[in-house]
Write a structure and sequence with these properties.
By secondary structure, the protein is mostly beta strands. It has no helices and eleven strands.
C-alpha cells in the first residue's frame, strides 16, 4: 500500500513562490501516476495537476497553467509542485494522491 507525505507548505505573500514535495513509499514509485489536489475548508477537493509515470505527460487545471509546474524524481520517490505567482485565493491544503491514496496534506497560506 502506498504512503504519501507532503511537505513544503507555508505562508507567502501574493506573487511569491513555493515548492511542495510529496514523498512516496510502499509501492514501486515509477509505476505510479501522481496528482496534486487542493481543498479549502468547507469546499470539495479541487484538481491542480497530474503527472504520468515517466514524467513525460502532465495535466493542469486551467487556473494554474503557466504558473504551476508538476515534476517527479523517480530516483528519490518524490513528486514536486512548483507554484509561482501565488494568489490569495490559493490558500488551501494541498494533497498528493496516487493509487486511490492521499497524503495528509500541507497547508499553503497566501496573504499580505
Amino acid at each position: 500500500q502506498v504512503q504519501l507525505v507532503e511537505s513544503g507548505g507555508g505562508l507567502v505573500q501574493p506573487g511569491e513562490s513555493l515548492r511542495l514535495s510529496c514523498a512516496a513509499s510502499g509501492h514501486t514509485f515509477s509505476d505510479l501516476a501522481l496528482n496534486w489536489y487542493r481543498q479549502a475548508p468547507g469546499t470539495g477537493r479541487e484538481f491542480v495537476a497530474a503527472i504520468g509515470r515517466r514524467g513525460d505527460s502532465t495535466l493542469y487545471a486551467e487556473s494554474v497553467k503557466g504558473r504551476f509546474t508538476i515534476s517527479r524524481e523517480n530516483a528519490k520517490n518524490t513528486v514536486y509542485l512548483q507554484m509561482d505567482d501565488l494568489k490569495t485565493n490559493e490558500t488551501d491544503i494541498y494533497y498528493c494522491g496516487a493509487a486511490s491514496t492521499w497524503g495528509r496534506g500541507t497547508r499553503v497560506t497566501v496573504s499580505s
